[in-house]
Specification:
The chain has five helices and seven strands. With about 180 residues, it is an alpha/beta fold. Strands 3-2-1-4-5-7-6 form a seven-stranded mixed sheet, sandwiched between helices.
Length: about 180
């Protein structure tokens, strides 16, 4: 994550969905980002407050909400970050709607964590998680279909099955 953030300007605005424990907040603060976060769970927001401490937490604007219906205006943020979520937590049908919403609220970039199959690839059903089922081309096509052009990847992990998880830096496609 840090190396991808290093490719972006300092002082930009970021929306982190889901915010979780705010694990990237120290990186955002190092770069003077204006930090917003959204999480569906009030318990996670409380955990973030504890994990970050008051100074760092209150440097962020964090709210509870639904990633499929983001309550922000179009192009409200320079950067959207979403990790451990679209790939593993939500099913494919809602994930596609969330990608569309994420593209709507970012005006420039996104860093999205997704998985890729080591060999072959298959599209998940709408009621299944994406996990590492899709080929790299399928992942790129999915991102392009929902408003993002992948420009750079950083390997996060390789599973025992050879499937890879990447942080993918994307540019927002023009409408």
């Amino acid at each position: 994550m840090q190396t991808l953030l290093d490719t972006l300007p300092k002082g930009i605005s970021v929306l982190d969905v889901p915010f979780g424990t705010g694990r990237f907040v120290p990186y955002y603060r190092e770069r003077d980002y204006q930090i917003s976060g959204l999480d569906a769970s009030g318990h996670m927001v409380d955990a973030a407050r504890k994990a970050l401490g008051d100074e760092a937490f209150y440097d962020c604007f964090v709210c509870i909400g639904d990633a499929a219906k983001l309550r922000y205006p179009d192009g409200a943020f320079d950067l959207l970050v979403s990790t451990r979520f679209l790939r593993d937590i939500v099913t494919f049908g809602p994930a596609k709607q969330m990608l569309k919403e994420m593209a709507r609220v970012t005006r420039r970039w996104a860093i999205i964590q997704l998985g890729e199959a080591a060999e072959g690839g298959e599209m998940p059903n709408d009621d299944e998680t994406m996990a590492g089922r899709m080929s790299r081309q399928m992942v790129d096509d999915l991102l392009m279909a929902h408003g993002f052009r992948p420009i750079e990847r950083r390997l996060v992990a390789t599973g025992e099955d050879g499937n890879r998880i990447h942080h993918i830096l994307c540019e927002r496609l023009p409408n």
